[in-house]
Write a structure and sequence with these properties.
This protein has 246 residues and is α/β, with parallel strands linked by helices. It has helices at residues 24-45, 64-70, 83-93, 127-140, 154-162, 174-184, 193-199, 211-219, and strands at 52-56, 75-80, 96-99, 113-118, 141-151, 186-190, 205-209, 224-234, 238-245. The model has no long low-confidence stretch (mean pLDDT 94).
């Protein structure tokens, strides 16, 4: 597997990148943490290399820049709602651009990939689109391809339950979210209206999902099998899930 240090990674950061909050060390460590998740998943799946990689929800390339350095021979692609983010990734990292949509049925990508990485995006949507995006990812995997994505698992649920961190949610809706998580394994609530207006989407919030719920959704897709579930693997915060086609 590739060995990577900070000097291998392109350091240009877009002034529009909302993921950069002034801490360079943390910004780049998040990308490296994603690579470690992918490396663990690749070992579990018996994959030594990737020839084509899709970063779904790529933003301005916080992870994509690390993937470019780690897999220099791979063809890279990014998918995002932001045209500005896609343009930056195309210019900075040579990534092919695919425009995303809140509705996975409206996402048009005309090829398949050895590796799909999806960090954070599924933590911001409700259960129905969560499942439909998993189905979309499955359709975009090459044979024996590897899907690696992140979720908000028990750690995040506990932070919300104890009041340690609200994730910007309206506290009035948190009890119902937690009840759904406990009873069904998945809970979701929208961000306040002013956040939705600023982001420019109709549905956007925080989801929490139990490992058992996530694995059931993967197992319901005939072509997919769970390869790995590791709590707090990404940035010591989000759970990392890997699955592969049969």
């Amino acid at each position: 597997m590739p060995q990577l240090n900070s000097y291998d990674v392109l350091t240009d950061i877009s002034t529009q990148d909302g993921m950069f909050e002034g801490d360079l060390n943390h910004y780049f460590s998040v990308g490296h943490s994603a690579l470690r998740c992918i490396e663990l998943a690749a070992q579990a799946a018996g994959r030594a290399c990737f020839h084509s990689i899709l970063d779904f929800g790529c933003g301005f390339g916080r992870v994509l820049r690390v993937l470019k350095a780690a897999y220099p021979e791979a063809v890279l692609a990014g998918c995002d709602l932001s045209q500005e983010a896609l343009d930056f990734c195309a210019t900075a990292f040579g990534a092919e651009r695919f425009y995303s949509n809140e509705d996975p049925d409206k996402v048009t990508i005309d090829r398949t990939f050895d590796l799909i990485w999806c960090g954070t995006m599924l933590t911001n949507i409700d259960s129905a689109p969560f499942i439909r995006f998993l189905q979309l990812f499955n359709s975009l995997l090459s044979r024996d391809g590897l899907l690696v994505f992140t979720t908000h698992g028990p750690f995040v649920a506990d932070r919300i339950r104890t009041g340690e961190y609200s994730y910007g949610l309206d506290e009035a809706y948190i009890p119902a979210m937690l009840r759904a998580y406990e009873s069904a394994g998945f809970g979701y609530t929208d961000y306040p209206a002013e956040v939705l207006s600023r982001v420019g989407v109709e549905k956007y919030g925080i989801s929490i999902s139990k490992p058992s719920w996530v694995c059931r959704q993967i197992e319901a897709i005939p072509d997919l099998r769970v390869m790995m579930y590791t709590e707090r693997a990404w940035d010591n915060h989000q759970d990392c899930v890997a699955c592969s086609q049969w």
